[in-house]
Amino acid sequence: MGVHGIISYGAYIPRGCLLRSSIAEFTGKGSNKGARSVASYDENTTTMGVEAARNALKRSDTNPKKLWFSTVVPAYMDKTNATNIHSALQLDDFVEATDFGNSTRSAIGALSNALESDFSTLVVTADLRTGPSGGTEESSGGDASTALLIGTDEQGALLAEYLGGVTVTSDFTDRWRVPGTSYSQVWEERFGEQAYKPLVERAWSEALRKVDIRTEDISLALISGLHSRAVAKSIPLIDVEVADDLTGKIGNTGAAHPSLLLANFLDQAKPGEVVALIVLADGCDVLFFRTTQEVENRRNPVPISDQIESQSPVPYSKYLSWRGLLDSQLPNRPSPTRPSSPAAVRRNDWKMGFVASKDTTTGIVHMPPSRIGIKGGDVDDMEKLPMADSIGTIETFTLDNLVYSPNSPVVFAVVNFEGGGRLPVELTDADPEKIEIGGQVEMTFRCLYTADGIHNYFWKARPVRREREKS
To answer: What's domain 341-470's architecture?
Structure first.
């Protein structure tokens, strides 16, 4: 059914970063070099996945038939997290939404299966890494998400063709985390290093033979794995130039890292380049791609390099508080009650998809949506109006130091949207001292709070990135 490959892609790196020097200063341990990405207090793997998926779908006319979400830190167990992403993206009800989880290898497994499928599939991955305070797992980890729209050249123009690949599976325990714990445990590093080396050699030689390709034909290799020493020892085994793995700038983002490296490659790639993606996780996976002419026309809306450049440092104490590793005094107000599931279902388009209504007679935009116009008229004389991609302008704002929040003070603003509509919203990813009336904001999917185990998802506003203002 045609040539398989990547139709579009997106990546999301949180705007916060944690300087490793701040960890060393606080704990007296670790390196002073580099930084790691940090998800905000109102972000989890689902909200990050929504951001990456939105970026992937902006530059494509292909509608996915399946949505697969892979993470090792799901916001929910039992409930499907992919359905939250499905609702936020306002995908058709007949689009299958499924979770892939439990291990970092599930992410590359989802990608490999999508590349063999005849259905257009949006593969979303996200991870949120943490570890004991002052430890290597904490400082070397990172938070990020990616989305790859996979399909055939008959379903959409390909940015990169899939040439083929190989999977080698091996059962050994060098990293593990039991249910209910928040971070991984690892075996002595030399054990994993010795276990992965023959797997890489075997997978690489078999992949070259199967795809019928020579090392001199490969432009670049991307190597990913949570075992940093095994990754480093793999480089001389393949005899191909290896790209920077970004761990010095954002840390290792676990399940999201292989596709993040692939997205970073596509941000810069020229047509006709062949790239090898090598993933070390309970075995070794090798996938080959070749870019097409289309790669220069539909790149990630905000390149990964620009997202890294625009990050702002987060104090280590705030990071610990956001992760629940440090008890902080919250405003002396009652904790919020759990959101109503029946009410959420009735207003799902608004709550999850940020869909307003527009009066077909007067043209007035109603936020939240209404069945009847503010100036009267016929009931249900409305059309749905998606607002998630709309740019807004701050009309006025206030700082609230008393409202319940793990990140006080909370900034509330009245926002006027381009094309109509006005709404009071909470701002996020913003420095209260830098907010100005007239400033432009964009919408982002976040978790307002969690009560009784239920996440109250909705949309917040954040300052528009510099890159988007320039575009």
So the answer is: Beta Barrel (2.40)
